[in-house]
Amino acid sequence: MTTTRTSARPFGRTLCAMITPFTEEGALDLDGARKLAAWLVAEGCDGLVLSSTTGEAPTTTGAEKAELIAAVREAVGDRVPLVAGVGTADTRHTVELARAAQKAGADGVLVVTPYYSRPPQEAVEAHFRAVADASGLPVMLYDIPGRTGTRIEPETIIRLAAHPRIVAVKDCSYDFLGTQKVLAHTDLAYYAGCDEHVLALYAVGAAGCVSTVANAAPGRIAAILDAFDAGETGRATELQLRATPLTEAMMGAGLPGTVTAKALLTRLGLPAGPVRAPLLPAGREATDALLARYEQLVAA
Questions:
Q1: Where exactly are the structural domains of the chain?
Q2: Could you report the average pLDDT of every consecutive run of 10 residues in the chain (300 residues)?
Q3: Fold of 14-232
Q4: Which residues are catalytic?
Q5: pTM of the entire predicted model
Q6: Is 113 labelled a binding residue?
Q7: Is 54 marked as binding a ligand?
Q8: Alpha-carbon gap, residue 29 to 232, rounded angstroms
Q9: How far apart, in whole angstroms, are the C-alpha atoms of residue 128 and residue 152?
Q10: What is the distance between the alpha carbons of residues 62 and 66, in angstroms, rounded to a whole number?
Q11: Which residue, 19, 231, 289, 297, has most beta carbons within 10 Å?
């Protein structure tokens, strides 16, 4: 196992779970996606995750997902890795999306635990192996039991780590002990998928983060990890705590991160557009609160 875990960053360090911009009519806004991706990279993101939870993967088609990858690749070139969300409740469909993502130009795939059917761990493991075997792209497992209803148990992740193309985990498990167990027994690159855990996971050996808050404040999220890398742990803590009010407003105020991110980006004049049903847009009061927390952060 490597002695400096953070040296293994297969998809970068500060990744943004990028929203998927739509036009006011609800169509895919590829020009907006190009502009937003270029801005995120210029502001400090060294990796982008497309079609994740924040990217409204459940309500975009396979064709739209492929078009989005191609458009963002055109905008950012080879400067940063692109990880494409391909997870569904259907193994065959997930395999199809993984192959399409490779063809469209992705550097890796994000694969969520199959949801709704709540498969047992043996079936969960078989699902991930099938997807990893189906394309030549490296795989980031996505452990988010609060949404899928099924955990990827630490023992399952440890077994999956032996697969040559399963290289990373986006961790939204809220099981800090389980995460440390996997870190202690594998070389998997862990990415904090919850913004309140960015520094905490990094401090115990994570490779970085996949941040929703980075849609609006990419430089502020990158700065937390920059400070830690420079040995300024007190400064890193200060920066994490400064971002907490915005993190709470975006992720802990009762609205999905997709909704809050798009509301804030629209106020900031960045490409976003509406959310797709069944999601509803943030109201005026919630959007005002988001903007106030954002302004508080950038003024600090």
A1: 14-232
A2: 57 98 97 98 98 97 98 98 97 98 98 96 98 96 96 98 98 97 97 98 98 98 98 98 98 95 98 98 97 96
A3: TIM Barrel (3.20.20)
A4: 142, 170
A5: 0.96
A6: no
A7: yes
A8: 40
A9: 10
A10: 6
A11: 19
